[in-house]
Amino acid sequence: MLDWRRLPLSLVYGAIAFAYVIAAAGLTAWLSALLPRPWMAAATTCALLLPLLVYHVRRAFAPMRSLFRALAGTVASYRDGDYSFGLNWQGKGELGELVASHNRLGAALREQRHALVQRELLLDTMVQNTPVAMVLVDPARRIVHGNLAARKMLGDGRRLEGQAFDDLVARAPIALREAFDRGGDGMFTVGDQDNEDIYHLSRRHFRLNGRRHELVMLRLLTAELRRQEVQTWKKVIRVISHELNNSLAPIASLAHSGAELLRRGQYEKLPTALATIEERARHLEGFIRDYARFAKLPAPRTQPVEWSRFISQLQSQVDFVAEGVPDSGSGRFDSAQIEQCLLNLLKNAHESGSPPEEVRLSLRRLPDAWRIDVLDRGSGMNEAVLANALLPFYSTKRHGTGLGLALAREIAEAHGGRIALLNREGGGLCVSMVLPG
């Protein structure tokens, strides 16, 4: 029996049409000899052959109709996310290519779904087992998802999904409630002084399925901060011990030498020994004063300050070229603290090896702030120094305390601003400080 599925569609159409044309022509010629009128022969031919034509066409195209129904069913399954179906078609030609392409599409979708499921499982495992408490909140302020850390921290180990997030926060410790009331990211402490935990709160908004959701993350920082605190104290002790030894050892040695000079009556060498003792004592005094200033930096007392007068006062203490200073503009900051900060930066610029005339201070007005750039043409900083220069106690100078840039950063951030360092094209360094204004 002829299998229509194995023939090209054009050949099937042609064969059926040719067979019926030949049959119609022969039958019409035979009937014309029997019937009195020609149209009666044509009508009789159509009446006899048309049902047969319909039958054969339906018979020939029945497998294709089944194939099209199967294609429609698999497409509907793909739309519903079920990619397990495939088609079996023995034919060749255009329909065979269509079925093969459809099966390849299904295989690709199955592989993608499998890879997606594996990634979802990996992501869910990571989210569930991370020590960071994560809570996803929908637009109705209902909890969509809470990982294991969130259940332990906020729900006494129970599931959080479906609960009202605001009710959950209302039952939380007061420090957490206050952190949420402040809005944005922040740190807060839970517990008393003897048994306290430090947390970091992070809140992010994004759109999921066209709706605005909020992701809340709570991270316990107590252990990490305590490790950093111990390391910081160790570094402070090393720096202080080094400076004290560098000053006290020569003072003790010179004091002993002075006593010997007095005993021998060699008074002419005493002034040199006493001057050296005084110099080391003053260095030690300045060192301790710098540490005290950094540790006890008071909150800034901001007030309007005229820029032209402020810059002129700076220029009376250290040489630099001023650029962009407005005649009548003013900022709002603690004049004494910003003056100390800029003096440190300008002195660093002079100590960088820059020509004195290349040490400049540039002032620019931003939409809602003032930007102050201290520029030099010294040797600049390598990547390692740039990454650590603003940290307390970090210094590349032989006798540096590592507090100058750290103090500048503390002052800028206490004013609600920021400070950054970057190397300049052509050599040199730019220290950029932005102050709200």
Automatic annotation (TrEMBL):
<feature type="transmembrane region" description="Helical">
    <location>
        <begin position="39"/>
        <end position="57"/>
    </location>
</feature>
<dbReference type="InterPro" id="IPR005467">
    <property type="entry name" value="His_kinase_dom"/>
</dbReference>
<keyword id="KW-0902">Two-component regulatory system</keyword>
<dbReference type="InterPro" id="IPR036890">
    <property type="entry name" value="HATPase_C_sf"/>
</dbReference>
<dbReference type="Pfam" id="PF13188">
    <property type="entry name" value="PAS_8"/>
</dbReference>
<keyword id="KW-0808">Transferase</keyword>
<keyword id="KW-0547">Nucleotide-binding</keyword>
<keyword id="KW-0472">Membrane</keyword>
<keyword id="KW-1133">Transmembrane helix</keyword>
<dbReference type="InterPro" id="IPR004358">
    <property type="entry name" value="Sig_transdc_His_kin-like_C"/>
</dbReference>
<dbReference type="InterPro" id="IPR035965">
    <property type="entry name" value="PAS-like_dom_sf"/>
</dbReference>
<feature type="transmembrane region" description="Helical">
    <location>
        <begin position="12"/>
        <end position="33"/>
    </location>
</feature>
<keyword id="KW-0067">ATP-binding</keyword>
<dbReference type="InterPro" id="IPR050351">
    <property type="entry name" value="BphY/WalK/GraS-like"/>
</dbReference>
<dbReference type="InterPro" id="IPR036097">
    <property type="entry name" value="HisK_dim/P_sf"/>
</dbReference>
<keyword id="KW-0418">Kinase</keyword>
<dbReference type="InterPro" id="IPR003660">
    <property type="entry name" value="HAMP_dom"/>
</dbReference>
<dbReference type="GO" id="GO:0005524">
    <property type="term" value="F:ATP binding"/>
</dbReference>
<feature type="domain" description="HAMP">
    <location>
        <begin position="69"/>
        <end position="114"/>
    </location>
</feature>
<keyword id="KW-0597">Phosphoprotein</keyword>
<protein>
    <recommendedName>
        <fullName>histidine kinase</fullName>
        <ecNumber>2.7.13.3</ecNumber>
    </recommendedName>
</protein>
<dbReference type="Pfam" id="PF02518">
    <property type="entry name" value="HATPase_c"/>
</dbReference>
<dbReference type="InterPro" id="IPR000014">
    <property type="entry name" value="PAS"/>
</dbReference>
<feature type="domain" description="Histidine kinase">
    <location>
        <begin position="239"/>
        <end position="437"/>
    </location>
</feature>
<dbReference type="InterPro" id="IPR003594">
    <property type="entry name" value="HATPase_dom"/>
</dbReference>
<dbReference type="InterPro" id="IPR003661">
    <property type="entry name" value="HisK_dim/P_dom"/>
</dbReference>
<keyword id="KW-0812">Transmembrane</keyword>
